[in-house]
Amino acid sequence: MKLYTIYLFLICFGAVPVCSEILSIIAGSSLVASLGVGLGYIGWQKCFFDCCSEFKPIHEIETNLTILLSEKLYGQHIAVPALKNAIINHLKTKEPRKALTLALHGITGTGKNYVASMIAKSMFTKGMSSRNVHVINGNRHFYDDKEIHDFKNGLTHWIQGNLTSCSHSLFIFDEVDKLPSQVIDAIKPFIDHNIKITNADPRRAIFMFLSNTGSEVISQHALKYAQQGKARESISFIEMQEIVEASAYNQGDGGLKNSELIGKHLIDYFIPFLPLTRTHVLLCIRDYAKQESIFLTAEQEEKIADGLTYFPRGGGNAGTFSSSGCKHVANRVNLEKFQL
């Protein structure tokens, strides 16, 4: 058995996962590249030994995603329909022109990572543990240009290898604003229009970019509505997408700013995640307590919510929004559990 066939056999049965950790991308790039060549050589570009069997039927994905977004994601009346429609329309398109690219922006704790896990759970039987879900965390340091160059090359081979394994791949770039724009540019060939890449078809893939960029302007816009006595739900997708896109263009030093993804208009949707109110935080507290079979009284729920921080600090709308959303809810509920 030739070497690439052995590698391919091991990958399809879980012995050598293609979705390597970020630190091993460079080291494994040669292996991934050779896998792509091997797959192309034998003509099995989409799946091998049923590698794509984890991908659910589209009608089931639509049902699952609708339920999860509507019942588990709080305070995001803009993100819920935008994400659902974008993903389902993309999956239902027989011949998409390009990969679906989604940029999710907002402060911490508003649900960006939570949504990514919902999408993975809806699409694949193993959810975030699926071999077709690939996560890159931008929270790392690059010390020189050579390291950036090597990582960029490794990333290219890594994406191509995973797409060769299964075209219905989900790529999640968390804290993308912390990655150098040169690294982000390595993604461009995979999300451009009508692009054909040797041994891989990227058009059916989904790329998600999670970022805190623009969170301040998103929060200020939501606060303006509160100050004017307008309903939160009256904030429209169109006005917020323009605000978020402008922030992605102009804020920060890396990430999407100055990248070809922005310059070539390759991001399909800029999706804002609004800051959460105290009411939303209480819902998160109740959900987590129920999930962990922890009984809390109404007084205990209020106590946990009161222990979190809110902004703005002063003025007539003081404490309108949670500074950390639902991020610290699990820790606070667990702490309260030990005091029961």
UniProtKB/TrEMBL annotation:
It comes from the Eukaryota. CDD domains: AAA. Residues 1-20 form the signal peptide. GO terms for molecular function: ATP binding; ATP hydrolysis activity. One of its GO terms (cellular component) is cytoplasm. Pfam families: Torsin (PF06309). Keywords: Signal. Belongs to the ClpA/ClpB family. Torsin subfamily. PANTHER family: LD13476P-RELATED (PTHR10760:SF2), TORSIN (PTHR10760). This is Torsin. It comes from Panagrolaimus superbus. The lineage of its organism: Eukaryota, Metazoa, Ecdysozoa, Nematoda, Chromadorea.
